[in-house]
Protein backbone atom coordinates (compact mmCIF):
# COMPACT_ATOMS: atom_id res chain seq x y z
CA UNK A 1 0.00 0.00 0.00
CA UNK A 2 1.10 3.54 -0.70
CA UNK A 3 2.28 5.21 2.47
CA UNK A 4 -0.40 3.34 4.40
CA UNK A 5 0.28 5.18 7.65
CA UNK A 6 0.04 8.60 5.93
CA UNK A 7 -3.23 7.65 4.27
CA UNK A 8 -4.65 6.23 7.50
CA UNK A 9 -3.60 9.32 9.47
CA UNK A 10 -5.11 11.67 6.87
CA UNK A 11 -8.40 9.76 6.90
CA UNK A 12 -8.48 9.74 10.72
CA UNK A 13 -7.87 13.49 10.94
CA UNK A 14 -10.48 14.05 8.22
CA UNK A 15 -13.16 12.24 10.18
CA UNK A 16 -12.46 14.34 13.28
CA UNK A 17 -12.00 17.83 11.82
CA UNK A 18 -13.87 17.78 8.51
CA UNK A 19 -16.24 20.64 7.73
CA UNK A 20 -19.19 19.24 5.80
CA UNK A 21 -20.80 20.96 2.86
CA UNK A 22 -17.94 23.26 1.90
CA UNK A 23 -16.83 21.28 -1.14
CA UNK A 24 -18.78 19.39 -3.76
CA UNK A 25 -17.06 16.57 -5.64
CA UNK A 26 -18.30 15.89 -9.17
CA UNK A 27 -17.64 12.72 -11.15
CA UNK A 28 -19.30 10.84 -14.00
CA UNK A 29 -21.24 7.86 -12.72
CA UNK A 30 -19.72 5.65 -15.44
CA UNK A 31 -16.67 6.11 -17.63
CA UNK A 32 -15.84 4.03 -20.69
CA UNK A 33 -12.24 3.18 -21.46
CA UNK A 34 -10.84 1.34 -24.45
CA UNK A 35 -8.51 -1.61 -24.03
CA UNK A 36 -4.86 -0.61 -24.61
CA UNK A 37 -5.64 3.13 -24.63
CA UNK A 38 -5.67 5.89 -22.01
CA UNK A 39 -8.76 6.14 -19.81
CA UNK A 40 -9.90 9.24 -17.98
CA UNK A 41 -11.90 9.16 -14.75
CA UNK A 42 -13.04 12.72 -14.23
CA UNK A 43 -13.10 14.16 -10.72
CA UNK A 44 -13.45 17.87 -10.04
CA UNK A 45 -14.16 19.57 -6.76
CA UNK A 46 -16.12 22.76 -6.50
CA UNK A 47 -15.86 24.68 -3.24
CA UNK A 48 -18.72 26.66 -1.80
CA UNK A 49 -18.37 30.44 -1.68
CA UNK A 50 -17.12 30.20 1.92
CA UNK A 51 -14.40 27.72 0.91
CA UNK A 52 -13.23 29.37 -2.32
CA UNK A 53 -9.72 30.07 -1.04
CA UNK A 54 -9.09 26.58 0.43
CA UNK A 55 -6.21 24.55 -0.95
CA UNK A 56 -5.95 20.80 -1.30
CA UNK A 57 -4.24 19.00 1.56
CA UNK A 58 -4.41 15.51 0.06
CA UNK A 59 -6.07 13.50 -2.71
CA UNK A 60 -6.51 9.73 -2.79
CA UNK A 61 -7.73 7.54 -5.65
CA UNK A 62 -8.72 4.00 -4.64
CA UNK A 63 -9.94 1.01 -6.59
CA UNK A 64 -12.67 -1.25 -5.26
CA UNK A 65 -11.38 -3.53 -2.54
CA UNK A 66 -9.45 -0.67 -0.91
CA UNK A 67 -6.42 -0.69 -3.23
CA UNK A 68 -4.74 2.76 -3.07
CA UNK A 69 -3.58 3.60 -6.58
CA UNK A 70 -2.69 7.33 -6.49
CA UNK A 71 -2.01 9.58 -3.51
CA UNK A 72 -1.03 13.25 -3.24
CA UNK A 73 0.08 14.72 0.10
CA UNK A 74 2.55 17.44 1.11
CA UNK A 75 3.55 18.20 -2.47
CA UNK A 76 4.38 14.59 -3.36
CA UNK A 77 2.49 12.19 -5.57
CA UNK A 78 2.90 8.45 -5.16
CA UNK A 79 1.25 5.66 -7.05
CA UNK A 80 1.56 2.88 -9.55
CA UNK A 81 3.26 3.90 -12.80
CA UNK A 82 0.14 3.52 -14.98
CA UNK A 83 -1.82 6.02 -12.87
CA UNK A 84 -1.37 9.80 -12.82
CA UNK A 85 -3.34 12.99 -12.45
CA UNK A 86 -4.79 13.98 -15.83
CA UNK A 87 -3.83 17.63 -15.39
CA UNK A 88 -0.10 17.85 -16.23
CA UNK A 89 0.55 20.99 -14.17
CA UNK A 90 -1.14 19.61 -11.09
CA UNK A 91 -0.79 21.48 -7.76
CA UNK A 92 -2.68 22.25 -4.52
CA UNK A 93 -4.83 24.98 -6.09
CA UNK A 94 -5.97 22.81 -9.00
CA UNK A 95 -9.60 21.71 -8.79
CA UNK A 96 -9.28 19.03 -11.45
CA UNK A 97 -8.01 15.87 -9.74
CA UNK A 98 -9.07 13.49 -12.54
CA UNK A 99 -7.31 10.14 -12.85
CA UNK A 100 -5.52 9.11 -16.04
CA UNK A 101 -4.91 5.40 -16.61
CA UNK A 102 -2.44 4.44 -19.33
CA UNK A 103 -2.59 1.17 -21.26
CA UNK A 104 -6.06 0.30 -19.98
CA UNK A 105 -6.65 -3.41 -19.42
CA UNK A 106 -9.63 -5.56 -18.49
CA UNK A 107 -8.43 -5.69 -14.86
CA UNK A 108 -8.91 -1.88 -14.65
CA UNK A 109 -12.67 -2.28 -14.94
CA UNK A 110 -14.55 -1.59 -11.71
CA UNK A 111 -15.41 0.96 -9.03
CA UNK A 112 -13.05 3.81 -8.12
CA UNK A 113 -13.20 6.36 -5.32
CA UNK A 114 -11.93 9.93 -5.59
CA UNK A 115 -11.38 11.32 -2.10
CA UNK A 116 -9.84 14.57 -0.96
CA UNK A 117 -9.31 16.94 1.93
CA UNK A 118 -9.05 20.70 1.52
CA UNK A 119 -8.42 23.38 4.11
CA UNK A 120 -12.19 23.83 4.19
CA UNK A 121 -13.58 20.32 4.09
CA UNK A 122 -13.61 16.74 2.91
CA UNK A 123 -15.20 15.21 -0.17
CA UNK A 124 -15.54 11.76 -1.69
CA UNK A 125 -17.35 10.30 -4.71
CA UNK A 126 -17.39 6.96 -6.49
CA UNK A 127 -17.23 6.35 -10.21
CA UNK A 128 -17.07 3.28 -12.41
CA UNK A 129 -14.84 2.32 -15.34
CA UNK A 130 -16.12 -0.02 -18.02
CA UNK A 131 -13.51 -1.32 -20.48
CA UNK A 132 -14.44 -1.95 -24.12
CA UNK A 133 -12.52 -3.14 -27.15
CA UNK A 134 -10.30 -6.19 -27.13
CA UNK A 135 -11.37 -8.59 -24.42
CA UNK A 136 -10.67 -12.15 -23.49
CA UNK A 137 -13.31 -13.37 -25.98
CA UNK A 138 -10.82 -14.67 -28.63
CA UNK A 139 -8.88 -16.50 -25.94
CA UNK A 140 -12.07 -17.91 -24.41
CA UNK A 141 -13.38 -19.06 -27.78
CA UNK A 142 -10.09 -20.86 -28.53
CA UNK A 143 -10.05 -22.50 -25.10
CA UNK A 144 -13.64 -23.71 -25.51
CA UNK A 145 -12.85 -25.13 -28.96
CA UNK A 146 -9.86 -27.03 -27.51
CA UNK A 147 -12.01 -28.32 -24.66
CA UNK A 148 -14.79 -29.44 -27.03
CA UNK A 149 -12.21 -31.22 -29.21
CA UNK A 150 -10.80 -32.93 -26.13
CA UNK A 151 -14.29 -34.12 -25.07
CA UNK A 152 -15.05 -35.34 -28.59
CA UNK A 153 -11.91 -37.54 -28.54
CA UNK A 154 -12.89 -39.22 -25.25
Please give the structural blueprint.
Layout: H1 4-17, E1 23-27, E2 30-34, E3 39-41, E4 43-47, E5 56-63, E6 67-73, E7 76-79, E8 83-85, E9 99-101, E10 110-118, E11 121-132, H2 137-153
Parallel strand pairs: 2-11
Antiparallel strand pairs: 1-4, 3-9, 5-6, 5-10, 6-7, 8-9, 10-11
Give a written overview of the molecule.
This protein is 20% helix and 42% strand. The chain is elongated and about 75 Å long. It has a single domain, classed as Immunoglobulin-like. The strands form three sheets. The chain has a six-stranded mixed β-sheet, covered by helices on one side. The protein has a three-stranded antiparallel β-sheet with strand order 3-9-8, with no helix packed on it. Strands 1-4 form a two-stranded antiparallel sheet. It starts with a helix and ends with a helix. It is an alpha+beta fold and 154 residues long. A hairpin with a 2-residue loop joins strand 10 and strand 11. It is built from two helices and eleven strands, in the order H-E-E-E-E-E-E-E-E-E-E-E-H.
What structural keywords apply?
single chain; 154 residues; alpha+beta; Immunoglobulin-like; six-stranded mixed beta sheet; 2 helices; 11 strands; 42% strand; elongated
